[in-house]
Write a sequence for this structure.
């Protein structure tokens, strides 16, 4: 129902503590956008500036083409769900959800209709007369979402809404938010520190660090083509392995040489390198744990390493291994690829040989940490 | 001294660690005063800078502004009118008109200011002495009205405040002109009077809420305190009450009284009374603190029954107005009182001189008595507070201590006590300051008991007893003294402030828990 | 070996239990003693108020003859009724006004951020270090001119008690600080103005501290002697109970008025104590919640 446009938005606390800087983003109508990043990266601050709970130190924020910098939160036509729910403890669930309508002095029938409709969608009809303290965490979360739903607002803001829930409930609520989105059909801005939530919920993801945007893109884009080392390591779990090594251009072919192995770059990556005309150079190589493969013995393109930790995750094994130099790598291997014999042999100290395919690696500049293909 | 790093410090044994801490503390004192001094300088420099910036802004506004803005340098609110802020404009203009009318009236500001003869040593405040005269025909005495110094000083002070407010408002409306100018230049609309009124319930809500309390504080605390400080520089007393006899400016001469350490001198009396006041505050605070905590721990111990009953018994003391309980208790301990009689009979004669029949008449027992009775008054408060803290101590701390092998009393000494001491640290300071000025307990307990007077003579025209604090002395000077030297009362008041301020500053900077209360949360 | 061990443990367990029992017994004795000490004056004052045979102070506690003489004298021969009403009126007015002042101030300082907030708090801290009594020098003079002293002193005193009460914001600010800020924010996003946040959200949530503040305001005039005595200036019509009955214990009046003072004390103590004990829960919450955070 509304577009949101942030232009050069800046937030400075006190005299010189910059929380957010140079934030530019166009959010399309009905888009689900996720701000993600480690704590203190400015994602919540940005959201709160959109909500009007923080002053904007510089730049402009537009909602539906109207500059809202100087508008009070209540005049921005937004709804917001808070991390700790922020339910009014002295009001019942019904009155909590009706709060904004009561402020508008809406007639009782309208209040009833809207609140009950939202409660039905969220499945909390039976709790409407209870006080918040008599609810469980998940129920409180639903009330908080319900309170935002009855507002019919242009933009729906959510500030880490799931982080106070336990892991199981979080997965369940995440699925419900996806469903909810189909029903509400409005513009969502969602803040989280959890990359899984970001990947599963967002149409587009905004990855932030130290107040700056690192990359904006669809989940596939940020996963397949991270703009820089930070994004590469932040998205995906376990995180991407990175090591300093050389890119070698030899006889029309590209090779990488990690830990003495020599692995050819193939497929689209090789083409991209060639198209950019890149020669031999130092790089930081990034390989995701799932892209490693076990090989049976030592060869010219394999890396020998000793197992330090073996995490059995069920469908896959996470092996934390140590390379001869002392560097640590994480290797992820589907359980199905291993026979019993192999599984048993993978105890502490056992040596395995790993390699990876030529088409799935990422190259970063050691100086700027930027993706040299981006 | 040499500073140890963390690992070196951990090597010290207990005794040396304490010694080291003490050294650190002593070393910190000069640095602390240096810091205060530097902060003060920084404050002054900051003020200067912002005033400078203000002038710069005024100048820039004048050069950049159009004719309307330029005119509002003379006519308040003109710029506001020009930019359509009628409400603000009217208020500003009204203020200016009222100011000039008040200043120019024959009985107005300039008149009062001139009469005050401000800070001219030896000059009177007010110029016309009222005097007695006899009616020419009937020969009856009548009073020819002159000036009243009290009023002259007050109106003069008000006028000065008014002038400061005027300058501030002038600056304010110029600033608003500049803001309007900027907003209009950007092509936006300035806030209308309606917006202003609305915002008083919203983003300017603090102004609405503060209007009453702040006015109250300004009128009934700030103004009287400034006035009182001024009185210290005058000769205001019972004889020179301003009406029958004008009083005048004395400069710093009054403060010389403090240097009089002879018999009956103010300096000596002040020193002795201050010493007792500090001693009293120290004992009153710490006896209450430790005993109250102790009582709270006893009541809240697991397995003790009737918790509510014990608590209510103590809380009764808070409920009953102090004048009832304190006056009654003070009589109880008098020679004829129930307890006083028993004590007089049992205590050795040396403690109660043969010719002094009452505990109140012996300086030592009187002082001990007020401290003991104050325990009776104060424990309930501490008990309540300590109870609250006890309930907040996370139970898992005790559980983990039990597993680590702590016995019952060890749990108290290692967990309960440190926790409470820490959380109640800031309260100790407030309580200490409160006791310095604890008028009620001392005055109600001792005033009716013909206490033994000190050998200090009559400093300030009143006799001082052994239990008098600075605040009760001050009270007596203004109410019971033969010539009511108000200027002296004022000087003592200022000194009390200085004492309290220095103590607070030191404590605040030395006790960590007054600053970071987060450690235990 | 194992058996031996458990035996030892059992022995220690029994020992601990026994010592705890002894400890508890000691505590009960101490608490009983405390109860006697703390209640003694109250029993004493009640007993002496019923004494008939002697109006002065005596050195025994139990009256030889019981009667209501002191109470009858109190209402017939003195202005006590008037003082009592004066003080009650002051208590009610102070309770209302002071609550408004204190809550406004503490809400602003706890919740709203504006330029000069820190400065204001520091200034109030510094002002609080002056002995408050000294402000009476000027206030008395001004009130005298406005006719707010002597028989009109109750009115003047109400103003004095309330005007600067905003400076005592610490306890209630401490309480407001514990209400999560995100509640305010949620309400503001929901469309509430600051005023509505205060009135629809914070006030209903602050019942204990509102009652605490009212209670404190109500009790202030009953306990105050210093300021009241200054403004009343020995005019019987304007006296509060504290100032009025104080004189009865002076050397000159002690012999005739001592038991009457006790009777007055009982009458004053009853309403205040009843109110106080009823609202004790809130008082305790106020003291323990707000004061420590200070």
């Amino acid at each position: 129902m509304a577009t949101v446009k942030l232009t050069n938005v800046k937030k400075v606390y006190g005299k010189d503590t910059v929380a957010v800087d140079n934030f530019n983003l166009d959010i399309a109508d009905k888009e689900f956008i996720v701000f993600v990043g480690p704590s203190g990266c400015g994602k919540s601050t940005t959201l709160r500036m959109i909500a009007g709970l923080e002053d904007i130190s510089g730049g402009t924020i537009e909602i539906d083409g109207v500059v809202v910098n100087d508008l009070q939160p209540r005049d921005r036509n937004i709804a917001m769900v808070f991390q700790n729910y922020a339910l009014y403890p002295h009001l019942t669930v019904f009155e909590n959800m009706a709060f904004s309508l009561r402020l508008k002095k809406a007639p009782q029938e309208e209040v009833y209709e809207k609140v009950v409709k939202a409660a039905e969608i969220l499945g909390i009809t039976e709790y409407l007369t209870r006080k918040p303290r008599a609810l469980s965490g998940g129920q409180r979360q639903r009330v908080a979402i319900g309170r935002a739903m009855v507002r019919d607002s242009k933009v729906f803001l959510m500030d880490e809404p799931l982080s106070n829930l336990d892991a199981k409930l979080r997965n369940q609520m995440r699925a419900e938010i996806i469903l909810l989105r189909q029903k509400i059909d409005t513009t969502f801005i969602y803040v989280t520190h959890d990359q899984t939530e970001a990947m599963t919920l967002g149409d587009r993801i905004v990855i932030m660090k130290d107040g700056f945007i690192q990359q904006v893109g669809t989940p596939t884009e940020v996963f397949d083509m991270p703009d820089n080392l930070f994004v590469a390591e932040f998205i995906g779990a376990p995180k991407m392995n990175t090591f300093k090594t050389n890119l070698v251009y030899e006889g029309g072919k590209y090779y990488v040489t990690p830990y003495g192995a020599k692995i050819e770059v193939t497929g689209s990556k090789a083409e991209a390198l060639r198209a950019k005309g890149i020669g031999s150079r130092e790089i930081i190589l990034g390989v995701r744990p799932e892209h490693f493969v076990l090989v049976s013995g030592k060869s010219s393109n394999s890396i020998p390493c000793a197992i330090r930790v073996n995490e059995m995750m069920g469908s896959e094994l996470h092996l934390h291994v140590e390379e001869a130099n002392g560097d640590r790598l994480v290797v992820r291997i589907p359980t199905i690829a291993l026979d019993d014999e192999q599984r048993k042999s993978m105890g502490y100290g056992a040596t395995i040989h790993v390699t990876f395919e030529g088409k799935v690696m990422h190259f970063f500049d050691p100086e700027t940490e930027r993706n040299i293909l981006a | 001294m040499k500073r140890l790093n963390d690992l070196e410090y951990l090597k010290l044994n207990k005794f040396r660690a304490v010694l080291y801490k003490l050294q650190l503390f002593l070393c910190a004192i000069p640095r602390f005063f240096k810091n205060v001094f530097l902060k003060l300088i920084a404050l002054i420099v900051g003020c200067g800078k912002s005033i400078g910036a203000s002038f710069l802004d005024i100048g820039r506004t004048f050069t950049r502004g159009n004719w309307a803005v330029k005119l509002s340098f003379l006519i308040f609110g003109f710029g506001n009118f020009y930019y359509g802020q009628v409400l603000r404009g009217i208020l500003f203009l009204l203020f200016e008109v009222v100011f000039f009318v008040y200043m120019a009236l024959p009985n107005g500001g300039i008149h009062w200011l001139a009469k005050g003869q401000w800070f001219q040593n030896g000059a009177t405040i007010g110029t016309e002495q009222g005097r007695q005269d006899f009616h020419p025909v009937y020969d009856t005495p009548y009073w020819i009205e002159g000036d009243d110094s009290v009023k002259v000083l007050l109106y003069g002070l008000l006028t000065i405040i008014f002038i400061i407010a005027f300058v501030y408002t002038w600056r304010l409306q110029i600033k608003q002109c500049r803001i309007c100018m900027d907003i209009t230049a950007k092509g936006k609309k300035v806030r209308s009077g309606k917006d202003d009124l609305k915002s008083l319930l919203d983003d300017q809500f603090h102004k609405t809420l503060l209007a009453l309390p702040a006015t109250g504080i300004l009128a009934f605390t700030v103004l009287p305190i400034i006035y009182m400080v001024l009185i210290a520089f005058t000769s205001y007393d019972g004889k020179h009450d301003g009406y029958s006899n004008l009083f005048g400016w004395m400069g710093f001469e009054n403060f010389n009284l403090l240097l009089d350490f002879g018999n009956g001198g103010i300096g000596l009396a002040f020193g002795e009374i201050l010493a007792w006041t500090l001693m009293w505050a120290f004992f009153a605070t710490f006896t209450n603190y430790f005993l109250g905590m102790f009582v709270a721990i006893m009541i809240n111990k697991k397995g003790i029954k009737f918790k509510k009953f014990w608590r209510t018994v103590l809380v009764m003391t808070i409920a009953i107005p102090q004048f009832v309980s304190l006056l009654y208790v003070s009589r109880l301990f008098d020679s004829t009182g129930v307890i006083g009689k028993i004590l007089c009979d049992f205590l050795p004669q040396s403690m109660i001189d043969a010719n002094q029949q009452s505990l109140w008449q012996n300086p030592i027992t009187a002082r001990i008595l007020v401290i003991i009775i104050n325990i009776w008054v104060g424990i309930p408060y501490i008990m309540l507070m300590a109870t609250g803290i006890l309930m907040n101590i996370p139970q898992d701390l005790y559980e983990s201590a039990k597993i680590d092998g702590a016995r019952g009393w060890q749990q108290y000494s290692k967990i309960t006590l440190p926790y409470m001491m820490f959380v109640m640290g800031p309260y100790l300071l407030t309580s200490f300051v409160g006791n310095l000025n604890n008028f009620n307990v001392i005055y109600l307990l001792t005033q009716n008991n013909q206490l033994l007077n000190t050998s200090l003579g009559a400093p300030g025209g009143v006799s001082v007893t052994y239990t008098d604090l600075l605040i009760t002395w001050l009270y007596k000077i203004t109410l019971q003294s033969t010539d009511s030297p108000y200027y002296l009362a004022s000087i003592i008041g200022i000194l009390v402030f200085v004492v309290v301020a220095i103590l607070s500053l030191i404590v605040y900077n030395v006790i960590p828990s007054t600053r970071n209360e987060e450690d235990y949360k | 070996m194992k058996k031996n061990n458990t035996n030892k443990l059992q022995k220690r367990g029994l020992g601990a239990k026994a010592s705890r029992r002894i400890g508890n017994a000691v505590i009960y004795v101490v608490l009983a003693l405390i109860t006697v000490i703390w209640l003694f004056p109250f029993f004493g004052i009640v007993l002496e108020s019923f004494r008939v045979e002697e109006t002065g102070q005596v050195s025994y506690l139990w009256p030889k003859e019981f009667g209501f003489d002191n109470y009858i004298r109190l209402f017939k021969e003195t202005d006590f009724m008037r003082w009592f009403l004066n003080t009650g009126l002051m208590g009610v007015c102070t309770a209302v006004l002071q609550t408004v002042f204190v809550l406004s101030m503490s809400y602003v300082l706890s919740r709203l951020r504006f330029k000069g907030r820190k400065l204001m708090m520091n200034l109030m801290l510094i002002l609080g270090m002056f002995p408050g009594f000294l402000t009476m020098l000027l206030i008395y003079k001004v009130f005298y001119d406005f006719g707010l002293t002597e028989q009109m002193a109750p009115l003047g005193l109400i103003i004095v008690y309330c005007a600067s009460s905003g400076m005592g914001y610490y306890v209630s600010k401490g309480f407001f600080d514990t209400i999560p800020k995100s509640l305010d924010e949620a309400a503001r996003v929901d469309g509430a103005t600051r005023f509505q946040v205060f009135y629809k959200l914070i006030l209903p949530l602050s019942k204990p501290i509102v009652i605490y503040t009212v209670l404190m305001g109500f009790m202030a005039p009953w306990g105050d002697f210093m300021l009241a005595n200054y403004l009343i200036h020995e005019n019987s019509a304007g006296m509060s109970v504290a100032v009025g009955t104080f004189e009865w214990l002076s050397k000159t009046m002690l012999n005739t008025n001592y038991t009457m003072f006790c009777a007055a004390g009982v009458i004053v103590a009853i309403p205040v104590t009843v109110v106080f004990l009823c609202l004790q829960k809130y008082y305790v919450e106020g003291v323990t919640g707000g004061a420590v955070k200070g």
In short: Chain B is about 65% helix and 0% strand.
